[in-house]
Amino acid sequence: MNLNESTELKQDRTDSAPPAVTMKALPAYEQIKRYVVKRIAEGVWKPGGLIPSETELVKEFGVARMTVSRALRELTTERVLTRVQGSGTFVAPQRYESTVLEIRSIADEIAARGHRHTARLLTLEPSDDPLSLEALGLESGPAFHSCIVHAEEGEPIQYEDRFVNPKVFPAYLEQDFTVETPNHYMVRVAPIQRAEFRIYAQKPDANVRRHLMMDIGEPCLMLWRRTWVGDDVATSVRLWHPASRFHLAGHV
Protein backbone atom coordinates (compact mmCIF):
# COMPACT_ATOMS: atom_id res chain seq x y z
CA MET A 1 0.00 0.00 0.00
CA ASN A 2 1.48 3.33 -1.06
CA LEU A 3 0.50 6.75 0.18
CA ASN A 4 1.42 10.18 -1.05
CA GLU A 5 0.04 13.68 -0.69
CA SER A 6 -2.75 13.07 -3.22
CA THR A 7 -3.67 9.40 -2.82
CA GLU A 8 -6.65 7.86 -1.05
CA LEU A 9 -6.26 5.47 1.83
CA LYS A 10 -8.29 2.39 0.88
CA GLN A 11 -8.93 -0.96 2.54
CA ASP A 12 -8.86 -4.15 0.54
CA ARG A 13 -6.63 -6.26 2.76
CA THR A 14 -6.77 -8.21 6.00
CA ASP A 15 -7.73 -6.93 9.43
CA SER A 16 -4.14 -5.80 10.05
CA ALA A 17 -4.25 -3.31 7.18
CA PRO A 18 -5.31 0.36 7.46
CA PRO A 19 -9.09 0.91 7.80
CA ALA A 20 -11.52 1.64 5.03
CA VAL A 21 -11.78 5.41 4.87
CA THR A 22 -11.40 7.98 2.16
CA MET A 23 -9.02 10.80 3.01
CA LYS A 24 -7.94 12.00 -0.40
CA ALA A 25 -7.38 15.58 0.68
CA LEU A 26 -5.27 14.70 3.71
CA PRO A 27 -1.46 14.59 3.71
CA ALA A 28 0.03 11.11 4.13
CA TYR A 29 1.27 11.79 7.67
CA GLU A 30 -2.25 12.85 8.72
CA GLN A 31 -3.69 9.66 7.23
CA ILE A 32 -1.23 7.62 9.28
CA LYS A 33 -2.16 9.57 12.43
CA ARG A 34 -5.84 8.81 11.89
CA TYR A 35 -5.08 5.15 11.27
CA VAL A 36 -3.14 4.91 14.55
CA VAL A 37 -5.89 6.70 16.51
CA LYS A 38 -8.53 4.41 14.98
CA ARG A 39 -6.62 1.26 15.93
CA ILE A 40 -6.38 2.55 19.52
CA ALA A 41 -10.06 3.55 19.62
CA GLU A 42 -11.07 0.10 18.35
CA GLY A 43 -9.05 -1.53 21.11
CA VAL A 44 -6.71 -3.29 18.70
CA TRP A 45 -3.76 -1.46 20.26
CA LYS A 46 -4.12 -1.28 24.05
CA PRO A 47 -2.90 1.41 26.48
CA GLY A 48 0.70 0.65 27.36
CA GLY A 49 1.06 -1.67 24.38
CA LEU A 50 3.82 -1.50 21.78
CA ILE A 51 2.72 -0.35 18.32
CA PRO A 52 4.43 -1.32 15.02
CA SER A 53 7.87 0.18 14.50
CA GLU A 54 8.63 3.02 12.10
CA THR A 55 10.20 0.48 9.75
CA GLU A 56 7.04 -1.63 9.77
CA LEU A 57 4.81 1.38 9.17
CA VAL A 58 7.05 2.61 6.34
CA LYS A 59 6.70 -0.80 4.69
CA GLU A 60 2.95 -0.97 5.37
CA PHE A 61 2.13 2.46 3.92
CA GLY A 62 4.88 2.75 1.30
CA VAL A 63 5.95 6.23 2.40
CA ALA A 64 9.22 7.85 3.42
CA ARG A 65 10.46 7.30 6.97
CA MET A 66 10.23 11.05 7.65
CA THR A 67 6.47 10.90 6.94
CA VAL A 68 5.92 8.14 9.49
CA SER A 69 8.27 9.85 11.93
CA ARG A 70 6.27 13.09 11.71
CA ALA A 71 2.99 11.27 12.35
CA LEU A 72 4.38 9.52 15.44
CA ARG A 73 6.04 12.70 16.75
CA GLU A 74 2.79 14.66 16.52
CA LEU A 75 0.84 11.87 18.25
CA THR A 76 3.50 11.88 20.97
CA THR A 77 3.14 15.65 21.37
CA GLU A 78 -0.64 15.17 21.63
CA ARG A 79 -0.08 12.49 24.34
CA VAL A 80 -1.68 9.74 22.26
CA LEU A 81 1.61 7.83 22.13
CA THR A 82 4.71 7.71 24.26
CA ARG A 83 8.17 6.94 22.85
CA VAL A 84 10.90 5.19 24.82
CA GLN A 85 14.44 5.43 23.48
CA GLY A 86 15.70 1.97 22.55
CA SER A 87 12.36 0.28 23.28
CA GLY A 88 9.88 1.65 20.75
CA THR A 89 6.59 3.54 20.63
CA PHE A 90 3.74 2.68 22.98
CA VAL A 91 0.09 3.65 23.33
CA ALA A 92 -0.07 6.22 26.12
CA PRO A 93 -1.87 5.18 29.35
CA GLN A 94 -5.61 5.75 29.12
CA ARG A 95 -6.86 9.16 30.21
CA TYR A 96 -10.48 10.22 30.38
CA GLU A 97 -11.49 13.28 28.41
CA SER A 98 -14.05 15.90 29.43
CA THR A 99 -15.71 18.37 27.12
CA VAL A 100 -15.30 22.09 27.59
CA LEU A 101 -17.83 23.62 25.20
CA GLU A 102 -16.82 27.23 25.52
CA ILE A 103 -13.49 28.99 24.99
CA ARG A 104 -13.37 31.95 27.37
CA SER A 105 -10.65 34.28 28.46
CA ILE A 106 -9.39 33.60 31.98
CA ALA A 107 -9.92 37.32 32.68
CA ASP A 108 -13.62 37.01 31.80
CA GLU A 109 -14.02 33.96 34.04
CA ILE A 110 -12.45 35.78 36.97
CA ALA A 111 -14.52 38.93 36.36
CA ALA A 112 -17.69 36.80 36.28
CA ARG A 113 -16.88 35.71 39.83
CA GLY A 114 -16.57 39.36 40.84
CA HIS A 115 -12.82 39.09 41.37
CA ARG A 116 -9.78 40.95 40.07
CA HIS A 117 -7.59 39.49 37.33
CA THR A 118 -3.89 40.31 36.96
CA ALA A 119 -1.33 38.94 34.54
CA ARG A 120 2.45 38.64 34.81
CA LEU A 121 4.31 38.30 31.51
CA LEU A 122 7.27 35.91 31.68
CA THR A 123 8.13 35.37 28.01
CA LEU A 124 7.28 37.10 24.74
CA GLU A 125 9.66 36.09 21.97
CA PRO A 126 10.17 34.38 18.61
CA SER A 127 10.78 30.64 18.87
CA ASP A 128 12.08 27.83 16.65
CA ASP A 129 10.89 25.03 18.94
CA PRO A 130 10.46 22.13 16.45
CA LEU A 131 7.49 20.40 18.12
CA SER A 132 5.60 23.68 18.32
CA LEU A 133 6.33 24.49 14.68
CA GLU A 134 4.87 21.09 13.79
CA ALA A 135 1.81 21.70 15.95
CA LEU A 136 1.24 24.98 14.09
CA GLY A 137 1.83 23.36 10.68
CA LEU A 138 4.81 25.61 9.96
CA GLU A 139 7.64 24.30 7.80
CA SER A 140 10.07 26.84 9.27
CA GLY A 141 10.20 29.33 12.10
CA PRO A 142 9.98 31.39 13.93
CA ALA A 143 6.68 31.00 15.71
CA PHE A 144 5.74 33.46 18.46
CA HIS A 145 5.94 32.27 22.06
CA SER A 146 4.46 33.70 25.23
CA CYS A 147 4.34 32.53 28.85
CA ILE A 148 1.97 34.31 31.23
CA VAL A 149 0.89 33.72 34.82
CA HIS A 150 -2.74 34.69 35.47
CA ALA A 151 -3.83 35.45 39.03
CA GLU A 152 -7.19 35.85 40.77
CA GLU A 153 -7.13 38.34 43.66
CA GLY A 154 -3.34 37.99 43.64
CA GLU A 155 -3.30 34.18 43.77
CA PRO A 156 -1.88 32.47 40.64
CA ILE A 157 -4.37 30.06 39.06
CA GLN A 158 -3.15 29.58 35.49
CA TYR A 159 0.22 29.24 33.73
CA GLU A 160 -0.30 29.90 30.02
CA ASP A 161 2.36 28.54 27.64
CA ARG A 162 1.32 29.56 24.13
CA PHE A 163 2.77 29.30 20.61
CA VAL A 164 1.21 31.45 17.89
CA ASN A 165 1.27 31.40 14.10
CA PRO A 166 2.80 34.71 12.94
CA LYS A 167 0.94 34.43 9.63
CA VAL A 168 -2.36 34.75 11.49
CA PHE A 169 -1.23 37.20 14.19
CA PRO A 170 1.77 39.14 12.81
CA ALA A 171 1.62 41.81 15.54
CA TYR A 172 1.48 39.35 18.44
CA LEU A 173 4.89 40.29 19.87
CA GLU A 174 3.88 43.97 19.98
CA GLN A 175 0.98 43.46 22.41
CA ASP A 176 0.86 44.26 26.12
CA PHE A 177 -0.56 41.08 27.62
CA THR A 178 -0.66 42.52 31.11
CA VAL A 179 -3.48 44.75 29.84
CA GLU A 180 -5.24 42.45 27.36
CA THR A 181 -5.09 38.64 27.45
CA PRO A 182 -3.92 36.73 24.36
CA ASN A 183 -7.42 35.26 24.10
CA HIS A 184 -9.02 38.71 23.97
CA TYR A 185 -6.47 39.93 21.43
CA MET A 186 -6.82 36.93 19.11
CA VAL A 187 -10.63 36.89 19.17
CA ARG A 188 -10.59 40.60 18.38
CA VAL A 189 -8.18 40.24 15.45
CA ALA A 190 -9.21 36.88 13.93
CA PRO A 191 -11.94 34.82 15.68
CA ILE A 192 -11.33 31.09 15.63
CA GLN A 193 -13.34 28.73 13.43
CA ARG A 194 -12.60 25.43 15.19
CA ALA A 195 -10.57 23.91 17.99
CA GLU A 196 -9.31 20.63 19.38
CA PHE A 197 -8.30 20.04 22.98
CA ARG A 198 -7.45 17.51 25.66
CA ILE A 199 -7.39 17.71 29.45
CA TYR A 200 -4.84 15.90 31.60
CA ALA A 201 -4.00 15.51 35.27
CA GLN A 202 -0.24 16.00 35.39
CA LYS A 203 2.56 16.96 37.73
CA PRO A 204 4.05 20.27 36.59
CA ASP A 205 7.75 20.81 36.12
CA ALA A 206 9.68 22.93 38.62
CA ASN A 207 9.26 26.12 36.58
CA VAL A 208 5.46 25.87 36.35
CA ARG A 209 5.19 24.76 39.98
CA ARG A 210 7.23 27.74 41.17
CA HIS A 211 5.21 30.31 39.23
CA LEU A 212 1.91 28.80 40.40
CA MET A 213 3.19 28.67 44.01
CA MET A 214 2.36 24.97 44.32
CA ASP A 215 3.59 22.36 46.76
CA ILE A 216 5.91 19.63 45.50
CA GLY A 217 3.80 16.69 44.34
CA GLU A 218 0.61 18.71 43.89
CA PRO A 219 -1.08 17.82 40.57
CA CYS A 220 -2.24 20.18 37.86
CA LEU A 221 -5.12 20.16 35.45
CA MET A 222 -3.47 20.83 32.09
CA LEU A 223 -5.58 21.78 29.08
CA TRP A 224 -3.86 21.41 25.70
CA ARG A 225 -5.69 23.25 22.92
CA ARG A 226 -5.08 24.00 19.26
CA THR A 227 -7.27 26.41 17.26
CA TRP A 228 -7.74 27.28 13.60
CA VAL A 229 -8.49 30.45 11.67
CA GLY A 230 -9.57 29.38 8.21
CA ASP A 231 -7.19 26.65 7.05
CA ASP A 232 -4.33 27.84 9.28
CA VAL A 233 -3.53 26.58 12.76
CA ALA A 234 -3.60 29.82 14.73
CA THR A 235 -2.26 28.80 18.13
CA SER A 236 -1.19 25.85 20.26
CA VAL A 237 -1.39 26.39 24.02
CA ARG A 238 -0.91 24.53 27.28
CA LEU A 239 -2.87 25.93 30.22
CA TRP A 240 -1.71 24.68 33.63
CA HIS A 241 -4.05 25.00 36.65
CA PRO A 242 -3.39 23.95 40.28
CA ALA A 243 -5.92 21.18 40.89
CA SER A 244 -6.58 22.39 44.43
CA ARG A 245 -7.57 25.87 43.23
CA PHE A 246 -9.29 25.33 39.92
CA HIS A 247 -11.81 23.19 38.07
CA LEU A 248 -12.82 23.04 34.42
CA ALA A 249 -16.48 22.97 33.40
CA GLY A 250 -18.68 23.52 30.37
CA HIS A 251 -22.31 24.06 29.52
CA VAL A 252 -24.55 24.01 26.47
Automatic annotation (TrEMBL):
Domain HTH gntR-type residues, every copy: 26-94
UniProt cross-references to Gene3D superfamilies, sorted A to Z: Chorismate lyase-like (3.40.1410.10), Winged helix-like DNA-binding domain superfamily/Winged helix DNA-binding domain (1.10.10.10)
Matches recorded under InterPro entries: Bact_HTH_transcr_reg, Chorismate_lyase_/UTRA_dom_sf, His_ut_repres, Tscrpt_reg_HTH_GntR, UTRA, WH-like_DNA-bd_sf, WH_DNA-bd_sf
GO biological process: L-histidine metabolic process; negative regulation of DNA-templated transcription
Pfam families, alphabetized: GntR, UTRA
GO MF term list: DNA binding; DNA-binding transcription factor activity
Keywords: DNA-binding, Transcription, Transcription regulation
Matches recorded under SUPFAM superfamilies: Chorismate lyase-like, Winged helix' DNA-binding domain
Protein name: Histidine utilization repressor
Species classification: Bacteria, Pseudomonadati, Pseudomonadota, Betaproteobacteria, Burkholderiales
